[in-house]
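Predict fold of 5-methylcytosine-specific restriction endonuclease McrA; 189 aa.
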Amino acid sequence: MTIHVQPVVRPEACPALVLNADFRPLSYYPLSIWCWQDAIKAVFLDRVNIVSEYDKVVRSPTFEIRLPSVISLKTYVKPSRHPAFTRFNVFLRDRFTCQYCGAREDLTFDHVIPRSKGGQTTWENVVAACAPCNLKKADRLPREVEMWPRQNPFAPTVHDLHSNGRLFPPNYLHDSWLDYLYWDSELEP
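Predicted 3D structure, encoded as tokens:
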């Protein structure tokens, strides 16, 4: 006789995909997910609709609820038109690739025109660079060391970052999320 034991699913393993009121993810990369506690709190505050649920139930002495796997905001949040300048967003714009040699490990960011030579910390002057390339270039101009970025740095749109984010799907996607995510399987990072 074979006994099948159901694996114990801890609530921590049940994040909720958060959709805007138009049923699109608030963000693709990082993927807009909330921990189960925040999802339940939003349900009780009547800020979200439950779109899909896990089989996992959580209980209190007087109440029980299945954990939401997909929730949608009741009020539409207008997406930002201009992404924030952050280290992460620079890496995402540059597809997590050194703009000098193509490496994908040990990324830092580099000022194409060094700050010591008047360069500013802006989208148009910062690129992803691996630590060895950043050390090699140091505080010199590209022409001084013959190191040119593979693409000219630019201020990306939210669409640019979302498109690049789709190239790097998370390691885990719950089946209930797939109808709301549009990962392009033909594009490779």
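Strands lie at 16-19, 33-34, 48-59, 64-73, 107-111, 126-130.
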